[in-house]
Amino acid sequence: MKTPSILPRTWEVPEAIRERLGVEVGRQRVMTAEGHLLVVLHAPPQPDEDKRTGRFFWRKPSGSWTSSEWGQAAGALQNHLDQYAAAWDGFEQRASTAASADEYFAILKGLAPLHRATRNLYQVLQEARRLCPEDRQLIVWRDHAYELERTAELLDQETSHSLNYLVARRSEEQARASHRLAVSAHRLNLLAAFFFPIATLSAVFGVNLAHGLETVAAPLPFLGVLLIGLIAGAALLTFLQQPPVDQRKP
């Protein structure tokens, strides 16, 4: 039983080319037979998209181009490249406004399949140019694909570096916060150690002394002690909140 071709039925391409195609689009590639040139490409992939959408561009021996997506439009392959360019422009805008690790990770996740597709697109057009040297338009499309592949590489590297810098900066901020907490805890431990013996002896033996204010203006001594305690607590809090000195600096 003859395997059905995924090419449009109206295309009069050589049977040798149809036999080389399966029921799925497969990888991006170029085929030639009897003066015909078939370029198999993928539409710009979307994030989390497993199946690739194939696009076929057929160059007849006469030099005219026909596409499965845009018909016999002369600029069909250029339209294909423009869609890739628009996809990269969208990622560049997202990367320029990203401010969190989650945003950078989402960008990198979407960049990976698009970068692979763009790299393979350039390689296919380079091979098509080699197989069909008389078509000058293929040079323009190949060069455009190279610019897209270069843009993809630079954007991928820039986004990865931005994510690494953000992670390093967050780690440094957390290290500084941990250092401040450690210094504050150390100060509290010193204060507790200093007053612990006095507090223990006071709890065991008691230190209630008769000072004559027990019955004179009863609320005032309590309020005075409360006020002094609040002032002392505020002073202690101010001391504990002082930025620690980084001992690592010379």
Notable features of this structure?
250 residues, alpha+beta, 2 domains, 4-stranded antiparallel β-sheet, 4 strands, 60% helix
In total, how many beta strands?
4
Helical percentage: 55-70%
Order of helices and strands: HEEEEHHHH
Averaging pLDDT over every residue, what do you get?
81
Spatial strand sequence of the major β-sheet: 1-2-3-4
- Oligomeric state of the chains present here: single chain
**Helix/strand-derived class?**
alpha+beta
Largest beta-sheet characterization: 4 strands, antiparallel
Total count of domains: 2
Low-confidence stretches: none
Query: What is the approximate shape?
Result: rod-shaped
Distance between the termini: 81 Å
Per DSSP, the total helix count is 5
Provide an overview of this structure.
The protein is α+β, with helices and mostly antiparallel strands. The protein folds into two domains: 15-170, no CATH class; 209-240. Helices cover 60% and strands 8% of the residues. The protein contains five helices and four strands; from the N terminus they run H-E-E-E-E-H-H-H-H. It has helices at 15-19, 76-97, 101-131, 137-205, 219-240; strands spanning 29-33, 36-42, 54-59, 65-67. The protein has a four-stranded antiparallel β-sheet with strand order 1-2-3-4, with helices on one face. Strand 3 (54-59) and strand 4 (65-67) form a beta hairpin. Helix 2 runs antiparallel to helix 3 (101-131). It is rod-shaped and about 120 Å long. The mean pLDDT is 81.
